[in-house]
Amino acid sequence: MSEGGHDFAEMYAEGIPPWQIDRPQPEVLQLIENGKFESPVLDLGCGTGDNTIELARRGLVVKGLDAVLEALRRARQKTEQAGLKQSPEFILGDALRLAESGLKARTVLDCALFHTFSDEERETYIRGLEAVLSPRGRLHILSFSELETRQPGPRRLSLSEITGSFGAGWRVEDSVRCRYWDRVRPDGAHAWRVSFVRE
After folding, report:
1. Who's near 144: CB < 8 A, 6+ residues apart?
2. Residue stretches of the chain with pLDDT short of 50
3. Cα(93)–Cα(12) distance, integer angstroms
4. In the chain, pLDDT over 90 holds for what percent of residues?
């Protein structure tokens, strides 16, 4: 399966993809500590579930969605090893088909998914987000920024490219330059973390 024109399934089949770090992203931990997640949470492009599992560990009701079956298999295996009181649910699905998914969330986490989409796909994706995210709910996006010049990696986005993709009904709550940790860059990739509120 692919999403945004990228064959992520092939990358999993080859072994451990560069974004699988087997721990939650520090920016996600910071958001949790700051109380920026409310249940139910939807983790889009959840991969092998590190952020999803951490959210569940903190007592949140969370579902992780990914288009790659192998990623979800690894996520479920990690969940079993974590021994959580309340386990997250992992769903096979396409983030570009959210509008017909029937999913509902108070908080959506997009950790390194948004930057994989083309301009046209972004429009479809945002319409889907509007269908699943409740009023006054939050969307958190972690995306590679224009400052990251090293390869490999996805499309790089400026803050204005991220925020400018969202029209009426979305308010930027917060935006910070940060790092996205992967297996390629020991100091992390330059990134943006942008939080929106659905009005």
Report:
1. 112, 115, 153, 154, 155, 156, 157, 180, 189, 190, 191
2. 1-5
3. 16
4. 91
Rounded Cα distance between 118 and 39, Å, is 30
Token couple for 15: 């072994």
Can you identify the CATH homologous superfamily of domain 8-198? Vaccinia Virus protein VP39 (3.40.50.150)
Sheet holding 105-111, edge to edge: 89-92, 62-66, 41-44, 105-111, 133-144, 189-198, 170-180
Listed residue (56, 68, 61, 72) closest to 94, CA to CA: 68
Which residue, among 41, 81, 35, has the nearest Cα to 60 in the 3D structure? 41
* DSSP state at residue 22: S
Answer positive or negative: Cα dihedral of 86, 80, 90, 35: positive
139, 98 contact by CB (below 8 A): no
Backbone angles phi, psi at 119, to 5 degrees: -60, -45
How many Å apart are CA 30 and CA 52, to the nearest integer? 14
DSSP 145: B
Q: Is there a contact between 184 and 18 (Cβ–Cβ < 8 Å)?
A: yes
